Amino acid sequence: METSYTIYKKPEFIETDTGNKVSRRSLISGSQNIVLGGKTIVHSKCTIRGDLRRAGPTHQAAVLIGRFCSLGPSSVLRPPYKTYKGTFSYYPLKIGDHVDIGENSIVEAASIGSCVVIGKNCVVGRFAIIKDCCLIEDGAVIAPNTVIPPFSVVSGGSPAKVVAQLPESTQEVFETRSKDNYSKFISG
Amino acid sequence: MGRLQIAPRALVCKNTIIEGDVQIGNDTVVHVGASILAKKGPIIIGSGNIISERAVIVNNHSTPLTIGDDNLIETDARIEGRGMGHRNTVQVRAVVAEYSTLGNDCVVGATCSTAPAENVPDNTVLFGNPQSRRTRADGNPEHRFTHKKHLEYIHEMLPRYNHIIEAE
């Protein structure tokens, strides 16, 4: 599928050595606890809470993001929290490669696999686990602690349900799309 | 114009939007990117509340908007009502609509909304889509337990990574 180029103004984005493009208008706290895999785009007004990390003397990152991801405008990435054996802690939020998070979505998942597309205005509840090659449709509200199996299409609100399956070619399709999006996101 | 009063032990991040006459009580935490807008009347926030990023508390009336103690207001929630009691949870993207109030120990579930001008009684849980509600009988033990520890954790970690507004 042919898509058009997205042209941005050069001063708006910071490009790192590994090809990450991070908007200056994004809100990132605790950047030392955030890992971006490379060639990931962080759009404007995106909030990433790297300051909410594991309690105690660990050097574990709070938010881990893979390659070729896109974090949409006004999206929020926030590590999940719980009390386990009487101690309160936030736990890392892991995101695989080729993950596209749409505009205005809020993600508090424990882990998101590779090749996942999350639509606009979604809510992914605390400690949800989304496996590889999933499509979360616009406005879906995934309940806390849900596990979404691979190749699922998830839709609807509060709680969202699996409504269909994706074909085996999904991995290839989503990979190509995210690479294409990255290569067509250029400064003008 | 308005005055901002922050209690000595409150944690209010610098990257927040606070307008008008706002009082923030002890131990309350306001995360980065939250907005507290006292447009016409004052907003009085009690102690031990957590207000997450992108939450909006707005008072469009001349009467004060009062928030009790130990409430948890999550990401992108919107509070436009006249107030709430203690130990409520307003979940992700939930709305407390105009003129409405929450009692004590209420939960407004993710993306749910109260009806305009209603007074939600104590122990009510709003959930699901299509929206429904029930009354809880367990007295909210989980919230009481977790919230205290959550506050302790945030009071330790937040000042390490964020700029905090110093109380006067």
Automatic annotation (TrEMBL), chain A:
InterPro entries (UniProt xref): DCTN5, Trimer_LpxA-like_sf
SUPFAM superfamilies with a match to the protein in the record: Trimeric LpxA-like enzymes (SSF51161)
Keywords for this protein: Cytoplasm, Cytoskeleton
Subcellular location: Cytoplasm, Cytoskeleton
Top-level taxon in the UniProt lineage: Eukaryota
GO cellular component: dynactin complex
UniProt entry tagged with the keyword Cytoplasm: yes
Primary residence: cytoplasm
Gene3D superfamilies reported for this sequence: Hexapeptide repeat proteins (2.160.10.10)
PANTHER family: DYNACTIN SUBUNIT 5
Family stated for the protein in its record: Belongs to the dynactin subunits 5/6 family. Dynactin subunit 5 subfamily.
Name this polypeptide is given: Dynactin subunit 5
UniProtKB/TrEMBL annotation, chain B:
GO CC list: dynactin complex
Stretches that traverse the bilayer: none
Principal place of residence: cytoplasm
Key words of the record: Cytoplasm, Cytoskeleton
Key word Transmembrane present: no
Family from the record: Belongs to the dynactin subunits 5/6 family. Dynactin subunit 6 subfamily.
Purpose: Part of the dynactin complex that activates the molecular motor dynein for ultra-processive transport along microtubules.
Name recorded for this polypeptide: Dynactin subunit 6
Organism field: Coemansia asiatica
